What we know:
By secondary structure, the protein is of the alpha+beta class.
Amino acid sequence: MPLTEAFRKRSLTRRGDRRRFQRVKVSLLGRFMLEDRREYPCQTLDMSPGSVSLVAPVAGRVGERVVVYVDHIGRIEGEIVRTFDSGFAVAINAPARKKDKLAAKLTWLANRHELNLPEDRRHDRIVPENPIATITLPDERKLRCRIIDLSLSGAAVSSDLKPPVGSPLNIGALRATVVRHFEEGFAVEFAVPQTQTSIVENLR
């Protein structure tokens, strides 16, 4: 097959993937590894079963293979197809069956907060004995705040400053992501569900 014809078919396949799968805005923390085996933290901007856009401190080169581990998703592989100021986009290499499973997972992740699905309410919320905590923002600024209530999977925070939805941050030693705003402040979801012991230790 002539080279130009091969590229044309490859382009048509990718366009077909984009038509088949709709991108959803979903903010998840993760890590990625480039071909030289260096690892860096990242966060998803949007994702479909065929592609993912990542905010990252380093962008590889277009065409470079990359392995990404995303919270709640797991391992995905692909190649970098585009770079931008704050990161890069990856075309995911996976069989159709795995992409269909990823589509179902993304639908659940995108809708769970709006629909108040039972999985999102699996932990009782409590008011901590010591509600004062330190939040570390992505730019290393530190913010003293009051925790309104918390569960093993997330917390509601009272604060005049409201980081954008999707922002990664740390509450104490806990990695978390801002998932919504409300009048008094904002809510976060922990990157890893906690135990009753670990949540107390990690918030100090």
